[in-house]
Amino acid sequence: MFERWGLFAYRHRRVVPIIVLLGILGLYAAFGLRLDGRLSQEGWDDPHSDSTLAASIEQDTFGRDSNGDVILLYRAEDGHHLDDPAIQSAALKHLESLRQQHPDQIDHVTSYFDTHNAKLANVDKTLAFAAIGLKGDGEQTLKDFRLVEEDLIPEISGVKTEVAGATAVADALDKGMAGDISRAEIYALPAVAVLLLIVFGSVVAAAMPLVVGVLSILGSLGVLSVLAGFVQVNVFAQSVVTLLGLGLAIDYGLFMVSRFREEMDRGQPIERAVATTTATAGKTVVFSAGMVAVALSGLLVFPQAFLKSVSYGAISAVGLAALLSVTVLPSLFGILGKNIDRWAVRRTSRRARRMQDTLWWKIPSFAMKYSKTVTLGICIVLLGLTLPLAKISFGGINETYLPPTNQVRQTQAEFDENFPEFRTEPIKLVVTNADNAQLVQVYQQANQVAGLTGRFSPSQATKEGTTVLSAGIADRKDNERVIQDLRNLDVPDGVKVYIGGTPALEVESIEALFERLPWMAIYIVIATFILMSLVFGSMVLPAKAVIMTILGMGTTLGILTLMFVDGVGSGIFNFTPGPLMSPVLVLIVAIIYGLSTDYEVFLLSRMVEARDRGSSTDDAIRYGTAHTGGIITAAALIMIVVCGAFGFSEIVMMKYIAFGMIAALFLDATIIRMMLVPAVMHLLREDNWWAPRFVRRAYLALGHHEGAGSPRLDKQRPRPKEPAISVPAQAEIPEDTTPAGADIVATEEDAEFWRELPNRELSIDEVVVEKHATRSGRSVQEDAELVPFQELMRRLEAEKRRELE
Which ranges does the record mark as transmembrane (predicted)? Predict the structure, then answer.
């Protein structure tokens, strides 16, 4: 199927890119440009939790609690006093003008200057605040804030005014995320272009993955905007989708360009090179994207709209990256042909050197030579780095996710410290169906709970049998304990008490995540295991891949705990250590699992390809690693550069993802894929390729073996009843008289010999064979995909049998 598609793309090479380009640009113009107005700030919480129900009851009864939307914090300077009549008059005048200028946005204003409530100022009256409630509900609240934002700061002599509040914090988080996209476009893309130029040594070749990357970004934003028209899409999804779409699109393009140049180096005609590239690298790209999509689809088992929206968007981005790689690139290859190496900036003759002379051949050879030591040593190191995971803690999104230097965050922290009773994240008890005596009973029990900033108090008068009691929690670390104590209240018969507020939302969100996490793990492990079994024709290789992926994931999470919980590097990277946000942690798990499986597929697919041509296990390991090691390393380095741009995000949770991916990519592309995989496979030897008969039949049915002529597979295939086709006398292979260890290169005479076989039209370039003498029963090695004469003969016989069948 993939070979046929490659031929189709070649024959319509001028039409396919135009159609795809117009489609992507149309999608972006029609939907992508409207994305900002469609994104949501919500979706972090479990919509089925008691805290969500509490918020719904409160809003239906009393309307939205908007007291903490915007906080104006007034600080007297230079010996001034907030009780000064001139200051009070100026402050009141400014607040009144706000009401008049923005009647459609501002619902109410409560300030120290018009109430003289002592709770709204500190003891020496050098610090006071005004609370502004906005009319908008849901997403409209943030839009209302942006309409009034420019007019919030007054000019009052002797007073400095700063902005805080829940909506101000949300706006700062939103702006930080928006900066991530620009940073990727301004810094990451040029850096990736330089890396690709170094890898390929040619401007034209380096431009190919970038074409796919840019189109992927535009298409992903358009797809995300379309999704936002049907489901709630959190604003954070935009950064994640851009990161994955850009990184994977460039990686996939890198693999495709590398394989096409490899085929051209072998002297293949352009059409055949395009078809082979699509049938091999293109097929692997599609299956790799499928693995990543499966891992990301595991997020759909969670109730949070945030995770669902990221899953939808990221799956679309990965699918689009794969689609562009197998449609646009084969067509461009067909147009360019040998011009793929135009505008070279360095000599590319190194591509023709022997595989045995490369680092990627020597590293797995070393790992296999000392396989037991390498396996044990690497496992000890990885497990040691996993140990910090025992100290992991979880929390929710708040102002601490902004950089310590952020002005809104600093103002919010100062407000919380001086006015703890008015913190923007109180714990609430929504009490229904209670008479006065029952309400007093609940009230007295609730105030006996330790860890509160003050006593529970009604936020407003009882209405329709519903009362809302609220209080602050002194330390966020006590959220879970306080909520558990409140759950244990002895509630009178007939009375309903719902625990609400931000702390309850966070705790219940964490509980929902860890309730579903085992199901996600089971799903993605089983699904990827099945897919890899079909791709590799083995059940041992997928099991090994899953175990190594989990080992690498544990190491990555341990490193993240060291950084973001223990604070290693917090000063350098400008963030405050603290609890990890549980939804983002689950997202990291899905992304890391997908990426690790992605690189595993690229590595093992070439090993399986060599094995299907008759190589021994060790030769297949060297062959696969030698052909993909440099490409995987380059791909990981490119992805690290893209992640690095997001690592400078102002938002801590984006740093989680960026540094998590950097750690996982580094481990995967070096220690795990280059050393641990060869060492373990060497120890497993022939067991690597074991699979039940039904798996082998499925493998054959999917066509992964096409052109391989595999002895491993042929012995499973029923032999035809017809007698074997005899090879013409002139096709007898001359005896190999070359001294052991010497290289043999096919001559023009050898080429003529192969041209005499039926239906074979081969050029000298297609039959150049380098082989090594067989010693002590050791199997013949394949080098640079060139096979021994005996294997070519066996393949011709197999093709003739299939024609007769």
Answer: 15-33, 187-215, 235-257, 285-306, 312-337, 374-394, 517-538, 545-565, 585-605, 626-648, 654-676
